[in-house]
Design a protein that fits this description.
binds tryptophan, 18 helices, mainly alpha, single chain
Length: 453
């Protein structure tokens, strides 16, 4: 039996829509909030170079594997894995990959909703002018008063989760595609406006130097693991999001060409976010290494010092972050929602609401992490939020990605990738096979082992 040509859940109306949706998934808090602060924490340039290397050598081949499997299976990741394993004469246990992916999706979505809620709250905090002229004490005070208030954090988490559920419930065409069609172009425009603004601070060169000065002295294996984990996170890999999105991709589009565009766009947005943030931070004599608070304390403080212009651009900035977060959050719900529809024959609305509700409940752990559970540790010295982040980004996603790549490279019926990528030049096709079989899995394995010891 050859793969179906359409998914029962709907299809992207064109290749461009698939690119927008997948880029919308990839571009999110990972690019704008996480990338700048982990780059700051890990010393800049060298870290960026390792991350870029991971995107090319590990990220692109694995994203191709996910899209290929999804487009062949045309079902939710769990059922796609089951069907393709059976067709290839392999163990049914490969569907476990889909299950682990769904679990990782719940975990990521749980904290994603909270941080995205913070960003939405900051649209109003910056917009109200509360931070104009603020000094470090005021900016920090505002942030800790906000995150310390369970009810306020909870309120914004609920708002964000409801928006996410609403979009997913409306379906692939009317919901997901509609959202990315407007939000993604808006996001690019806003980002360019902000980078333009950063060039006027007089510290643009310093920001660039921080991002691109390759100093390997500071690089540890720990940092390499963070860089690799981030490559998975930012490209939405390792939990079958791209498999789900690939299952709605039209048959004619080239997988390699499309995936390359998505990876480039995602990387460009991360670098532009760094270029928008660091010059503003340095122009105000602040440090780039502030950690997760970089976007919520240091940056608002920097904008606050810039008067009315800062108030305006600061607000624009948090609108941008909220848009980016929404188009990613929907992609965290989609794989599980598609599965629930297939399995229980329920409507999309019920599936989306149920899944959103479970993720919301799990997210309470992160809501509490900045107030009543600040000192409650789970994995090692990590609070709930840090534990979930660590477990998913640095463990579950790389492991899931490695298994997906091994499955596509070694266990899948050989004819499937050949058919799915028939338009790809044989040389490039073979390069992909080699990367999926050896480079990506071995690289993940090495980084795991080195970081462990
Ligand atoms: N890539 C998104 C970001 O950078 C987050 C995300 C969305 C994600 N879907 C995912 C991460 C699936 C891992 C897996 O913010």
């Amino acid at each position: 039996m050859a793969g179906a040509t359409e998914s029962i859940h709907g299809m992207w109306s064109s290749r461009i829509m698939f690119i927008l949706a997948a880029t919308g998934s990839a571009v999110g808090l990972g690019n704008i909030w996480k990338f700048p602060y982990i780059t700051g924490e890990n010393g800049g340039g060298a870290f960026v170079l390792v991350y870029l290397g991971c995107v090319v050598l590990i990220g692109i081949p694995i994203m191709m594997a996910e899209v290929l499997l999804g487009r062949e299976g045309r079902q939710s990741p769990i059922n796609t894995m089951l069907a393709l394993a059976e067709r290839s004469g392999r163990s049914r246990h490969w569907q476990l990959l889909g299950w682990v992916g769904a679990l990782a999706g719940f975990l990521i979505l749980s904290y994603y909703g909270v941080i995205a809620g913070w960003a939405m709250a900051y649209v109003f905090k910056t917009g109200s002018g509360a931070l104009v002229g603020a000094d470090a004490g005021v900016a920090e005070g505002l942030f800790s008063a906000f995150t310390g208030n369970v009810w306020e954090v909870l309120f914004w988490q609920v708002v964000f989760m409801c928006l996410t559920i609403f979009i997913v419930a409306r379906g692939v065409g009317q919901g997901l595609e509609m959202a990315v069609k407007y939000l993604m172009p808006a996001l690019f425009v806003l980002l360019l406006v902000l980078v333009g603004y950063a060039t006027t601070t007089g510290h643009f060169g310093e920001g660039l130097a921080f991002l691109f000065d390759f100093n390997f002295g500071k690089l540890t294996w720990e940092a390499v693991l963070v860089a690799m984990g981030h490559a998975f996170f930012t490209l939405s890999l390792g939990m079958a999001t791209m498999m789900a999105y690939g299952s709605y991709m039209p048959r004619e589009s080239s997988i390699l060409g499309t995936v390359a565009i998505i990876a480039v766009l995602d990387t460009v947005v991360a670098l532009l976010a760094g270029m928008a943030i660091f010059p503003v931070v340095f122009a105000n004599g602040l440090e780039g290494s502030a950690g997760p608070g970089l976007m919520f304390i240091t940056l608002p403080l920097a904008f606050g010092k810039m008067g009315a212009a800062g108030q305006f651009f600061g607000t624009v900035f948090f609108v941008l972050v909220s848009f980016a977060a929404i188009t990613s959050a929907i992609s965290l719900v989609e794989p599980a929602a598609a599965w629930a529809v297939e399995k229980f024959k329920i409507t999309r609305v019920r599936a989306a609401v149920t899944i959103g509700a479970i993720a919301w409940l799990l997210g309470l752990g992160t809501v509490f992490s900045s107030n009543i559970w600040v000192d409650v540790f789970f994995l090692g010295e990590r609070n709930f939020f840090d534990s979930v982040d660590f477990l998913t980004a640095q463990f579950m996603l790389p492991l899931g990605g490695m298994l997906i790549s091994l499955f596509a490279g070694w266990f899948l019926d050989r004819q499937i990738p050949r058919d799915q990528m028939s338009e790809t030049h044989p040389l490039l096709f073979n390069a992909w096979v080699f990367a999926a079989r050896f480079i990506a899995p071995v690289a993940v394995f090495i980084v795991f082992v080195m970081a462990l010891f």
